[in-house]
Amino acid sequence: MTESSKEIFIHIGFPKSASTYLQTEVFPEIDAEYFFVLGDLNIITELIKNLKAQVAKSKKKKIVISQESLSGHPHGHNAPIGFNKIADALKENFPNAKILIIIRNQFEYIKSVYSYSTATEGMLSCNFENYLNKIGDNYLFPKLQYNILIEYYIKYFGKDRVLVVPMEMIKNKTEFNNKLMNFFGVSSLPFVNSKKVNTSTKNLCIINFWRPFNYFLKKAVSLLVVLGLIQKEKIRAVKNFYYRFKIISLPILEKIFFLSGDLKIPKEREKKLSTIFSKSNKDTENLIDIDLNKYDYP
Length: 298
Description:
The protein is α/β, with parallel strands linked by helices.
């Protein structure tokens, strides 16, 4: 089967926006060849080129490609590569692809990505205020002006080939199902539901509990690498063990810190961000023909 005769669907994220749910519960059930792009963002364009060769070998008519970081770094960092360079690589290698973008209420995204990177998979050690001031202002808040990325993909792939769905729509199974069925050209998706996968805690005490451990482990690993006492190839294994330990420990910590309040964005900061995000969301609504106020977006 030639590449031009294949239907290629690419899910690009956003991170912390039902990505794991789609990757584990939805995409594998579609009658398609499913590719999960796994690798370092430093070499993402090379991974996309290699993926093209794998897709060419597939005998399936439908191809589903997924990786939430194709929308860029979860925290919005431009380094090592911005979303536009990734989009360019996707267009170059899969010019006729259809693009699936899942967005999320910006305030919920901010809290989720911080808590996940601190208390689950990640070694963030800064407090939430410093995160908002440094990473938020410089990188993350611009990333969460969704209209910028959406406009870019519409420009290169065409509006009829780009589907944008708010994550919150998943609570309305019928509406969410219909969107995906039309996009993938399938007659039913009975398996789509509101099941939560790969969630992170919002418990402030648990988040703060892990911050010093993250700091010292990160420093220790860096020192061991400098001293030549651990190979770089082993770092991933150490991190994965640590992350698994944090996940296993979560139920115990939730019982200990059950009286703790949840992570919250300061009111003054939320007010300022609402001004920025509300303008972006209005532009996004015009691009995707969905009323985001219905889902309590700023």
